[in-house]
Amino acid sequence: MKQLNCRDAGFDCDAQIKGNTDEEILAQAADHATNVHGVTVTPELAEGLKSLIHDE
User: Fold this and answer.
1) Single pTM value for the model
2) Apex CA 2: angle with CA 8 and CA 25, to 5°?
3) Tens digit of each residue's pLDDT (9 = 90 or more) over 5-50
4) H-type alpha helices, the chain
5) CA-based diameter of the chain, in Å?
6) In which domain, by residue range, is 18 found?
């Protein structure tokens, strides 16, 4: 299982996004960013987020 911490992306947010693949996590992160933070995830932002994904 892999994980992305929203806080690691620079937000004051304790959300942890978990999934089996980077693509699954990025899709969930895009939904979270849009719905919670009002941010649209661009391809450039998604590429930066990939480096923050780590194994649990």
Assistant:
1) 0.89
2) 70
3) 999 999 999 999 999 999 999 999 999 999 999 999 899 999 999 9
4) 22-37, 43-50
5) 27
6) 2-55
